[in-house]
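Form 7-S
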Amino acid sequence: MRRPVLTVLAVLAVLAVALPLGGCMGARAAPDAPAAGGIRERVAALALRQVAFGAVSLIPVRFVHARIAGPFEDAGRTLYCVSAQMKGRTFGKPEKPKIVVRVDKGALAVIDDDEACTGHRTEPFPELETLGNRAG
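Output:
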């Protein structure tokens, strides 16, 4: 008879610890792009919704040295290249996620074309750091 009582107590103890930490341990929701936001804010919000940028990370991440290249034309497409150093998930060694964003009639989409980014000058991308570090 004692065993079910201990199991219930164990479950309650786990819930008592897990529920207050839910904000830190839950899936990280990327901020929505502001409706009237500029293109750079929209690109940053799209990047933060990607798994490579920690969108489903159970561990909070922090972004440093975020960079963006673009807009530039490549084979008739308007593209942006986004990269950053992301710290937190690997406990010391930063990850370096990258995505290529295509703009088509105002709609943004992530495409798989790493070669499109070679040779383009990048500049700091504080919008990604601001949105990403605030959400984490």
